[in-house]
Design goal:
The strands form five sheets. Strands 3-2-1-4-5-7-12 form a seven-stranded parallel sheet, sandwiched between helices. It is globular and about 55 Å long. It contains eleven helices and 15 strands. The chain is α/β, with parallel strands linked by helices. Helix 2 (53-69) links the parallel strand 2 (29-34) and strand 3 (73-75).
Length: 333
């Protein structure tokens, strides 16, 4: 069987390292990670939370150990400052697929520091697109469900008009449009992916499922913006990674945009219900919701099911419990 080559930009992050580990299970796959570990990672100088710093460092170090253990090639490159080195490397290895995950992954950080987000999300993409136009690689870009803004109805599809709120969602939509423009002008191969409310092993991205779990473990209060009845389309990392891999196997995925989620919005309180069964004396408080946080719900995955044979297997009752038990074992409680 012919070998396939994959480059994962930002590959030491939550999504990237899980993707690399899964791809490494196939001996015919050659996997390269490019990451300088400076954005939401081990050597980040900005926006690393003091809370849980030690446990987060343990998790980040564990990611790197797993990458090394599985013989995944790792290059500590910064896309903005090491552009020429990356260009030379990509032109040499000619990857079949490039996953672009190198970006700021948190909406609150984007609103606090728009320029930092632009530099580490939009600029990084532009530099890679300038290289991709000289390759025949298939670029898979990780966008966000935040591009939709407030959901128009209970379910949104890829055809729903996007009206993002705040810096994060608007920059993600800008990146989507830049990629489509490069397709028009340079005929690049691309696929855009919109995930939602990801959770799972070795996450430190300050997503809601991670924050709730870490606070529960430490006996700290859990603060919910709003009344907890708002719905999110919680997606377990294993389901999401399976969808990304299916994109690489489907020729009709080129030039497409996909929602890759579980496909069923659940109340935020549903995570609390699961946590209460695992932790006694859980402290939960509700506060006024952030006006820049869009009201969301279910993302339709009918397109991904039809074109990719995408079939997520982990509702929150199954996936979140799996995540909780991994976390307990990892920190030995």
């Amino acid at each position: 069987m012919k070998k396939k080559t994959y480059v994962i930009l930002g590959g030491a992050g939550f999504i990237g390292h899980n993707l690399a580990l899964k791809l490494s299970e196939n001996p015919n796959n050659l996997i390269y990670i490019f990451d300088d570990l400076s954005v939401n990672n081990l050597f980040a100088k900005k926006y690393r939370k003091k809370n849980n710093f030690l446990i987060h460092n343990r998790i980040l170090t564990h990611r790197l150990k797993l990458i090394k253990k599985n013989n995944i090639k790792f290059y500590r490159f910064n896309i903005n400052s090491s552009y020429k080195k990356i260009e030379k490397k990509l032109l040499r290895i000619k990857p079949n697929f490039i996953f672009h995950l190198a970006a700021v992954s948190h909406a609150n950080i984007s609103n606090i520091d728009p320029f930092y987000t632009y530099e580490n999300s939009v600029n990084t993409l532009m530099r890679i697109l300038e290289i991709v136009k000289s390759l025949n690689s298939h670029l898979i870009y990780l966008s966000s469900s935040m591009v939709y803004g407030n959901f128009n109805g209970k379910v949104v599809s890829e055809n729903t008009t996007c009206k993002p709120l705040g810096i994060y969602g608007n920059l993600k939509l800008m990146c989507e449009n830049i990629i489509k423009a490069y397709k028009q002008v340079f005929d690049i191969n691309y696929t855009i992916v919109r995930p939602s409310a990801l959770y799972g092993e070795r996450c430190i991205s300050m997503r809601v499922g991670q924050i709730f779990l870490e606070n529960a473990v430490q006996g700290k209060k859990i603060v919910i913006n709003g009344n907890g009845k708002e719905k999110l389309d919680f997606t377990y990392i294993e389901d999401f990674i399976s969808g990304l891999i299916k994109i690489t196997k489907a020729k009709n995925s080129r030039g497409q945009t996909y929602n890759l989620t579980f496909g069923n919005g659940r109340q935020i309180n549903s995570l609390i219900d699961i946590l209460k069964k695992e932790f006694t004396n859980l402290k939960v408080y509700y506060e006024k919701r952030d006006k820049l946080m869009p009201k969301r719900g279910t993302l339709s995955i009918l397109k991904a099911k039809k074109q990719l044979n995408f079939n997520p297997k982990f509702p929150v009752e199954k996936g979140y419990l799996k995540y909780i038990r991994w976390y307990k074992k990892f920190i030995k409680i």
